[in-house]
Amino acid sequence: MVLPLLTGPDTPVPAVGARASTRPAVSVAAEEAVLRFKTSASSEAYRLAAHLAAVAPLPVPAMRLVQHALQPSVDTAHLAEVFLGGLMHGVDGADDLPHQKTFDFTEDIRTVLLGTVPPSELVRTARAVTAHLRGLPNASTGFPAWLPHSEGPERVRSGNRRPFGWVDETLRRRLGIAPPAAPEPESGPEAEPPHPHGELREIPDGFVLDEDLTGWRRLPVADRRFEGPDGLPYEVFAEHEGGWSGIRLLLAHDGEGRVLVIRTPEVRNPRHSVDLVTTEVTALKRLDGFFAPRLLAWDAHRLRPWLAVECALDGASDPAPNLHHFVGQVGTLHRAGLLEVARQLAASLANAHENGLVHGSLTPRRVLVAGRKMQITGWMAASVDGRISPHWDAYRPRPRYRAPELDMPGGEPTRESDVYALGVILMDAATGEGQGDYLSEATLALPAGLLSADWTAILEACTRRDPAHRPSAARLQRALDSLALQRPVGSDPMQVSLGLDPDLDPVGLDLESEHRGGQGPHLLLRGLPAAIRRSVLRRVLDQLTRQNPTGLELVRADYDGRSGLTRFEDVVRGTSFLHLHDDPAHVLSFCEKLRQEVTKRWDMLGRSIDDSDFGALAYDADEYGIPHVLRRLVVVVEDFQKVLLLAPEVFTVLRRVAEQGPRLGIHLIVSTDDTDGALADRVFAEGTPARIDLRGPTRGGEDPSERLMAQVAVQGPLETDPVFFTAGVEDIFEPPPGT
What we know:
By secondary structure, the protein is an alpha+beta fold. It is 34% helix and 16% strand.
């Protein structure tokens, strides 16, 4: 049984190694519903909802099992919160018995919830449920449940139900369910006889080893290969079936419960074994456990050279899977999960490169997913201080993860080839690709909505054919950190992140007043395609409202409702003047609202004090502990050129706001199709606004599966040259019917 933790909610769970399907975009309504629940519910209930969403639909008894697996922090009261939160709905018929009534989440809500909890935690919950199931047959009380029985008179309605635990043969016998009869042997070659030494070596107490999921195989007691004078100083109990050719991977324990992973080369030339172990010991010492295995012991000068590292765990007791198997089991990574994996791997490579190391053989199988922490392993053929390993050719990665220059005569692993490999690894984790030997030229023609423009820019930069044009691992790490953080927390509430330039440096905009170090307070956003321009506008407002949840008001106006500004209705205080073309008289109300705001703010600041402005008032309020009752006001006008045609007063009022706004704490954002911008320039006649100009689409077109992208230029009023980044439609907005 595999939980569909990261696959698309409307697609079947892929088999191990199967290509995962891509996810549809999540609706704004689902995001808002989850946000309301998160705001009103406890953190424990929010966590429980995510775990239930991973395995729903399910009845109440099964919910209690999941809740029990999250104890002691989660109890029945938190399950009640989930029920009352409005995220679940009943799906079965009214004639079901109470304990059979089933509840589910919508697919969009499920997608949002699954992005909030690490997949490894969901898997641990399923295993805890399984452990609890094993104890039920001996308990005095249990719960009603349906289990398959060969002689049962009824069949369980499965539909799209997701399994929430494992029921193995032992538990089936304890529940009174006989295992299926063994099939009659077929004619043909005789079956291989059972192993003559069936007794297996013991594993440490509390350690879990699922051979089917992990690739580890327990060794029989009769296997004495690692004992004796030339053996290993630990109790070896399992061996991995995969790994590099000639490099044996073993699980062992030290007799005190600590589990180790031992790597020992088995090559013909003993000197080569010494080189391989010595190289990895040197690398692991320098990395010192920073997103890498922690070195515990080694001996490079015995007949069998070896090294031992701390066993990376997925949870408290399970050996961590590699990234290849992890994605094969649970599907492609969601955006939040992909970002966290990428940040850690970039940080690991940046640290390695800074310490004189080049991995040279990086693939998804060299990345361990240890709960929330990634580890890059497999450093035996690494380059150290510019010295290329003489054994690199024997352990080079398969062509898909090899940078093009490595296949040229004299090609050697470099920092740039490591970055290329990381780019392909992340691409495979995001798209479910990775089966072909070579990276296709069309791989980056990603389906619309799968990855943001920022992510596409990162993956394209990492996989450029010219190594000189790839970012360093340190620059890649900074770019990924900017995606995660969006902005420095706390000190710059009007600063927003727009995207990444071709060198993966963050492109930002500060709508603080110019004389206080910002680029604002006003912004002119213009150009086509309109869908991308509006998406950039919503990205700006998303960050401003998140960073100023109580200190910001929003006045929104558009011509026909296509702006998508309705999403900010309940986010911050404000007023809406949307669909102005339906009621031209409403335009006059918009103008009057702005006149009143200007007058009110002058009255509060005091017209007679020459140096009085919003910034000074805010500073004094902080300095003297005075409540600052005057909020910043952001006035947004989308389709400005069309709104202007509805009433001439619009131009006069907006020009007054543009002129006096910097002192009054008013920020004016004008968005328009008009690439000439003559009318907009006249609105800002008294000062130059920051500008965001779309330079037309760079890809996409008639094919709806191709992602529409545009080149965007950002320029502050005091800057001589613009900064460029690529933008796309980062969110999904469906305009109202009839618009």
